[in-house]
Amino acid sequence: MDMPRHWRLKEQRYNLVGTECLICGAKLFPPRPVCPDCNSKQMQPFTFSGQGEVYSYSTIFEAPLGYEGFIPYAVALVKLKEGPVVTAQLTDLDNDEAQVGMEVEMVTRKLREYGEDGVIVYGYKFRPIGWY
Amino acid sequence: MTEDSLLLRPDREVGIVGYGAYVPRYRLPASEVARVWKEGQDALPIQEKAVPGLDEDVVTMSIEAARNALKRAEIEPGLIRAVWVGSESHPYAVKPTSTIVAEAIGAAPHTQAADWEFACKAGTETIQAAIGFVGSGMARYALCIGMDSSQARPGDDLEYTAGAGGAAYLIGPKEQSLAYIEGSYSYVTDTPDFFRRPGQHYPQHGYRFTGEPAYFKHVLAAGQRLMDELGYEAGDYTYAVFHQPNAKFPLKAGQALGFSKEQVKAGLLVPMTGNTYAGSSLLGLTAVLDEARPGDRVLLVSFGSGAGSDAFSLIVTDLIEERRNRAPLTQDYIARKKYIDYALYVRFKKKLVMH
Amino acid sequence: MRDVSIVGIGQTKVGEHWEKSLRDLAVESLWAAMDEVGIEKADALYVGNMLGGQFVGQEHLGTLIADFAGLRGTEAFRVEAACCSGAAALRQGYLAVASGLHDIVAVTGVEKMTDALGCTTAAGLATATDGDYEASQGLSLVAVHALLMRRYMYKYGATNADFAMFAVNAHRNAVGNPYAMFHRPISKDAFEKARMIADPINLLDSAPVADGAATLVLCPREQASEFSTQPIRISASAVATDSVALHDRRDLLFLESAYLSAKRAYQQAGVGPDDIDVFELHDAFTIMSALSLEACGFAERGEGYRLGQNGNISLEGPTPICTMGGLKARGNPVGATGVYQVVEVVEQLRGQAGPNQVQSPRLGMAQNIGGSGGTAITHIMEAMN
User: Which DSSP symbol is given to C126?
Assistant: First the structure.
């Protein structure tokens, strides 16, 4: 059920906490110990706003084990406002509504369950803005 | 107030610093339930109800409502000292919803957290407790949530109305409140009108027994007693919000307490959302706060089977105007909808036996 | 550093081998290669495999296969680099011989995928992605490539149909390869009607999962004529890495690992793309064919898919790819694929490709890619006579 592994990722999954390089200012998600741009090891936590846009998307019809209950579902590369690209599902939209360039915001949703008696994993997904 | 008074009032006055609603996007028309179970021949108690998506549950909905409340309150989440979630559909029977919400909003670790249960009044009782928690000076802020995604037995009358959604309230000092609480009151009896044993998927209900001896007895007792203790009548209020299991009961209760249909209308959401159980009266209150004016007095009376009612008298302050539009309005959530049919509903609500 | 030659090849048919276990397949291909060379012992055995632990509950594969092949006591261990575990095992073998430490080395790539049933297969393959930030978001390896393909189509205006010829060409070539999984050609029409797995990737864009094992026997060049009348020289062996996660790439639509690995290989061999007569590229998905051709200098950025359309990639064209069916039609038993690619280049350079023979090839290149481009391993082979 991978409880410790999912638990370790809480801050990333619930609040998009990554790192900021103190030397070159790069904002990184996921957090890294070494800056891929300038190689520095001086990092501090950085919380992303959750605003971004769709860089690419796909609708999945064959899922890996654990996600088959959600078929069909859309996944995307989302370019966050602050720079990095994250991989996440899209939610609160019809699968044929996704478009490259669509502006999205982060929400916290169920990623998967480990069966009816196992742990529930929550994390970030993205939905279109402009609904209100 | 003396300790023997029936009216509940804390030493320090408190109120609502921020509020937030959540209603999921999907809608099942009541006509769909009738189509499948009654060949379309039935009186429909509401128009449609809200259904959570496959990736939603009380945890995820509570997180969004809480984030909305914090957007309105604009306070440092680290100052929240209680995160309390009332529901009858917590995703875990043992493992609190409230700790997940606390982490997701930045209130952990220096906070109390607990899950509450009292059927449909699980949400308002967190507010009742928060009034004491904050009013005693123990804490500056407490976050209170009533949220549900309840199950109804397929083909049962409740299936027309069992909806999903709810609201979050940040309780804090009166000076920071967009609506402060003049006083509250609770009325409970041992009345088994609606209940669910452990391990059972669906609740049992007592049909007509849930009316007079349950809903009406407690709602009217609580509402009337609170008004009497405060020296008010229905005419002193701009709005009255009641627990809403269907469209008829709250109007009938309002009428019995002397309220007009207009006073009850703004907070009456059940025709479009269904009964959101522990979220019901709290969601109705968010719709009222979305339009209320400074100085308006609001009566809130919940009902939870088992049974009991919590009643609150609130006065809206000047701070409402600047805070209201910092987060989506309740009508924004209600207007956001995608219709599904009964087959998709059954899939979404996991009523199919898969194993 | 010594020059290294390939003196023996062995392979099983690629397919659904319900009756054969992982060790059965590995031993079969190992004996086939060793028999061809006429040896019963080796100095070392390196086994390329990605999913043994996950799909058949077996780690410790190098030792297990050595033991069951009659090589107990021999240096042996498993090498893993996701979908390029095969080429990684070859890299290990190459280093062992080139360094002077070993003379006869066997490299076996093996994968037994059909023991994993249903959604377990996709979950296993997803371990080639970033587990915490890609797989756990619900992505399959197919979906990661779908994100790549959609962005490519968006940027360059390509359509699904534009990729059909990669699949059609692979199937056409597989007909003449007795070891291939599929022996029927497919039409462009069938491609366009194929159902979506993760759109825009359809069933015919994707290489099939399969069981198979292939083996190479290596020795130093100066000993090669003792073991083979047609030794093949490895003129380059190069590995390069990039980020595992697609979202961490500097330029999503450029396979930096393939580019660097090819560049290093070209430098080692003293050649360029124009000198390559046969290119066994990593066509796990049609998009990867296009991107590999671009990264290795056979096409400009955004033009890779056009090579598929104008016949350049066919056996008769200037850039033959997937000459024995490629991953798409020979099949993709992932950890074995990298070795199959090299076996097929050797068959071409020896003139043993049968109906698929490319005209007098002198240089062949094989490139095996891990995940969505996290690792790329390139080998260039040369006919020695």
Answer: G
